[in-house]
Amino acid sequence: MSNSTFFAPKTLLFREGDDATNLMIIKSGEVVCLKSSKERLIPVFLAKGQDIIGESAMLSGAPYTYSAIALSPEWITDLTTTMVSRFQSTASLVAENRVLHPSILSEEEFTPSLEIEYKKILSQ
Prior knowledge:
globular, Jelly Rolls, four-stranded antiparallel sheet, single chain, alpha+beta, 124 residues, 3 helices
């Protein structure tokens, strides 16, 4: 059984370092995933429909390794452990081999004003 929830744009879904409580599949919309590095934010992933976020942290029991801010998604949560395990294996392989996802925001898309806006959301 899964639950769907709508989030308003610019909603903080989870913060880097928080205890993992959910993994999420995006049904529609987008979510920007950001990692803190020194005093800067680095966009690591722009999640879209059918992407999953938060699975590695939730299954490993570790805190979230990045923050996620909804841009306009609907979520489906509570996937089965089997599905999550498959996604976690893929994510580990990608991380180990430093493969970049094509949907990572470019420098042109991640402007200084967006970074400031996202920092405000994360500080709330």
